[in-house]
Amino acid sequence: MIKKIFYNSSLPRSGSTLIQNILGQNPEIHTTPTSGLFEMLTSLRVFYTDAQDFKSQDAKQMEMGFKGLLKGAIYGFHQPLTNKPYVIDKSRGWGMEYEFINQYDPNPKVICMIRDLRAIYCSLEKKYRNNPLTENHIANWQNLQGTTTDKRIQVWSNNAPIGSSIDRLYQVLIQGLHKNILFIKFEDLCRQPDTELAKIYEYLGLKEFKHNFNNIKQITHEDDKQFGIFGDHKIRQKLAPVKEDWEEVLGPNACKMITDGYPWFYNDFGYKI
C-alpha cells in the first residue's frame, strides 16, 4: 500500500536520474524514470475545464470529484507497480504545478536538482560534438542558427527541454513556490552526498538510510532513442565530483553570455561567477 507519493522536478542534465537511482537503493522507496503522469494529469485538467457535461453540473461537486480522480489516477497508477510504501515520481513539470498537486495531494514534497547553468549547457555541447554522425537539426546554415557554440546555446535556451525547464524554475521563484521545494545542487551531491541525502530524508519526513555511493546500480531504465543524443539517462556507478570544464568547452564569451542571461539564477542559488 502506497503511503505517499513524492515528486522529482529537476533541471535537465542536473542529476535527476542519478538521485532517483541513489534513493532507489532504499527498500522502502520506489523511484521512476521520466514519468508520463504529469502530462496525463494536466491533460485531464484541460478536459475537465472544457467539457460541457462537467460545466452543466454542480461546480463544487464536480471539483471534489475531479480532485478525487487526480489522486486516484496517480496513486492508482503506481499501486500495481510496487509494494513499497513510498514513490518518487520524476517529471520536470511538477515544481511549477505545485499548487495543482496541492489540490489533490495536500502538502506535496518536491525535490529539485539544480546545477550551474554553464555546466548544463556544456554537457549539451559535448553531446553535440561527440555525435558527428547524427543529424540533430540544430545547425542551420541557411539562416545561420545554431552554427556556433554561442548560437547553439541560444537555440537550447529557447526550446525544450532546457528553455522550458529554466522558465519553469524562474516562475517557481516568482510565485514563491520555492519555499515549499527542496533544492539540491548537483555539485554538493557529488562532494558531500551524506549531507545532501540527510537533507532529503528530513524534508520527506522519512527515516534515513545508509546509501552506497561507490556502487550505484541503475534501477530506472528509459529508451534513450526516444530522446535523441541529449537524453542520456545512464548514470555513473560511483559518485565523485565532476570537472568544471565549461570555459574550456564553451569558451569565455559563451560562459559570460550564460551568466549575464540568468542573473537571477546565480543570485538566488548562490553560484559563483
Could you explain the architecture of this structure?
- With 273 residues, the chain is an alpha/beta fold.
- The protein has 13 helices and five strands.
Oligomer: single chain
| Morphology call | globular
- Name the beta content range: 5-15%
Distance linking N and C termini: 47 Å
How many alpha or pi helices?
13
SSE series? EHEHHHEHEHHHEHHHHH
Helix/sheet category: alpha/beta
Q: State the helicity in percent bands.
A: 40-55%
Radius of gyration, Cα only, in angstroms? 20 Å
Query: Overall mean pLDDT score?
Result: 95
Number of strands: 5
Q: How would a crystallographer describe the biggest sheet?
A: 5 strands, parallel
Low-confidence stretches: none
- Read across the widest sheet, the strand sequence of neighbours is 2-3-1-4-5
